[in-house]
Write a structure and sequence with these properties.
Blueprint lengths: L1 E6 L3 H4 L9 H4 L2 H13 L3 E7 L29 H10 L5 E6 L10 H7 L4 E7 L1 H14 L3 E5 L3 E2 L3 H13 L4 E3 L1
Parallel strand pairs: 1-2, 1-4, 2-3, 4-5, 4-6, 5-7
Helix pairs in contact: 3-4, 6-7
Length: 182
């Protein structure tokens, strides 16, 4: 069984005015993100939207010292970007579509993602979204440690820099044994 893990493709990470935007590289994967999501939905596979959730004035969160405020609760920055956002509105009531708020980089950290995957006997994960070298990478590391098979579509991940993306893509292949596909 397969699932798509879609990570942080939100206005704050993608839009020009986003608070922690990857900008043009993230915008360039919009169609790939949309098409990949449609493919999984059409195959009746599970699709998990795993999205950063931060609170204003949370001085205890480690990211508050590293990055500008982003994906704040009840802001438009947390909305899915572009075509994916519009498509989510169409599919969000399907029983194979899930929205998981995450507090840390990994979609597994502090969420019930692993439980939901195991309940559905899902063993193969396709992971996409932003940022390749942060949230996508940390999610892939946890997936590897939990025994999942991992696929990373190069056309559906983006980072703040090309060198960061390339590092992560090599790490997926060389260290995690992931399939990195075009």
């Amino acid at each position: 069984m397969k699932a798509l893990i879609s990570i942080d493709y939100t206005n704050d990470f993608v839009a020009d005015e986003g608070h922690l935007t990857a900008g043009k590289p993230a915008q360039a994967i919009e169609i790939a993100m949309y098409e990949l999501t449609k493919k999984f939905i059409n195959n009746q596979d599970a699709v998990f939207f795993t999205i950063d959730l931060h609170d204003l004035n949370d001085n205890y969160h480690p990211e508050s010292k590293l990055f500008p405020l982003h994906n704040l609760r009840d802001t438009s920055g947390r909305l899915l970007y572009g075509k994916l956002g519009a498509y989510y509105q169409e599919i969000k009531s399907l029983n194979n579509v899930f929205w998981l708020d995450k507090r840390h980089y990994s979609a597994f950290s502090g969420t019930d993602l692993d439980i939901r995957l195991r309940e559905r006997r899902i063993t193969d994960l396709t992971i996409c979204g932003v940022l390749t070298d942060i949230c996508v990478l940390h999610t892939a590391i946890d997936a590897y440690n939990l025994g999942y098979q991992i696929t990373i579509p190069k056309s559906a991940v983006a980072s703040l820099s090309e060198s960061a993306k390339l590092f992560a893509l090599e790490h997926f292949k060389q260290v995690l044994g992931a399939k990195v596909i075009d």
